Amino acid sequence: MKLYGNSSMQRLMILSFCCLLLTGCWDRKELNQLAITSATALDWDGKVWTISYQVVIPQSIANPNTGGSPGQQAPVMVFSTSGGSIRGAVQQSSLEMPRSLFFAHNRVIVIGEEAAKEGISQLLDVYLRNSDSRETVGILITSGEGRKILEQIVPLEKVPGAAIKNMIRNEDMNSSNFKQVSIYQMMTTIASDAPYTLVPEITISGEGENNTIAALKKTSFSNKLKLGRMAVFKKDKLAGWFTPSEEYGISWIRNTIKRTTLYFGCTKDSRDIKAAIRIDRNKTKMKYIRSSTGRLIMHVDVDTMGTINENACMNDLTQPKELQAFEGVVSAEITRLMTEAFQSAVKKNLDVFHFADKIHKHDPTFWKQIKPDWDEQFANLQFESEVRVKIARIGMSGQSFSKMIKDPGE
């Protein structure tokens, strides 16, 4: 009897043997061969691109001595390379690094203002073409050099790149003034009818810089990293700036308020802040209306509900009329924020509300008619709003403490 008489059996055994030869990580790279990058920065000096890298030092991260002992090493190192193209600048890293740069754990990229003005289309192209770059990396902008941001030591976090990512995530979830923006989100926005992307600014506040490990030995810092204004990109280039207050109003219009605390005065026209409401639930609907004269109207409906968590006014919120009046004050403050944000956007002619996308989605035929002169249409846009506020809870006390201790004779 022949052992391999069956040709099909022979082929099966040969294939099985080949599969055994192919097992394992044929393209593996050991950890001690990689330089793990936690953050990068992009700068432009008018001639060349400069890429800065915040590289994690593993032995420092694993060191249990986190109190800043004399022999402690910094958790990261920062260095830069330059080139005529972004990928060319990255390639230069092999001339001065004993390890290969590994970008899969890169958390954020900080773009210098000059680079933003020049345009970041090359950067977006790099992220589209290379498998080692993730499109979920967050984008921030700084008015100075991006490298300066990467050099700062951040308290409470060992890796500054992770700290910056957590900073914007914490703001997004708890205050809603600034939104996280990823490479992927920017690419998607650029491809829309309203190619405007809002990108948070990160700055170094205070005096001096915290760029040495000795800074961790202190209990106070003369400066720190801080979120500032909101930059607006038109396609891939910086087009303008919004103040934090204007960005807050934009968030209300765009229905991106998740959870936030809104501060307001005791009356509708008062700017003397004495009360606050924690917004627990919010829903904004934006729609367009065509007036009889042909003018476009942006109509915004806001339904919000929250809890009073501060009140230094004389209102007794246990009384229905007083509570209703308080809801009116909150409604007026939200309306003011949205109106000022709208006026600023129209003045700058920046459709950051993506109103063009809204029209295109609901009425493609009408959008085709107005698309050629959309800039003019947007400049003449009219704003209308209706804000409904429900105070669901007033806290543990109906009256303010100031009212309770006030002398009746005063």
Automatic annotation (TrEMBL):
Coiled coil: none
Localization (cell): Membrane
Every Spore germination GerAC-like C-terminal domain range: 230-395
Membrane topology: Lipid-anchor
TM helices/strands, residue ranges: none
InterPro entries linked: GerAC_N, Spore_GerAC-like, Spore_GerAC-like_C, Spore_GerAC_C_sf
Main location: membrane
Lipoprotein listed as a keyword: yes
Keywords of the record: Germination, Lipoprotein, Membrane, Palmitate, Signal
Keyword Transmembrane helix (UniProt): no
Annotated ranges, domain Spore germination protein N-terminal: 27-203
Superkingdom of this protein's organism: Bacteria
Pfam family, one: Spore_GerAC
PANTHER family named among the record's database cross-references: SPORE GERMINATION PROTEIN B3 (PTHR35789:SF1)
Protein family: Belongs to the GerABKC lipoprotein family.
NCBIfam families, A to Z: spore_ger_x_C
Protein name: Spore germination protein KC
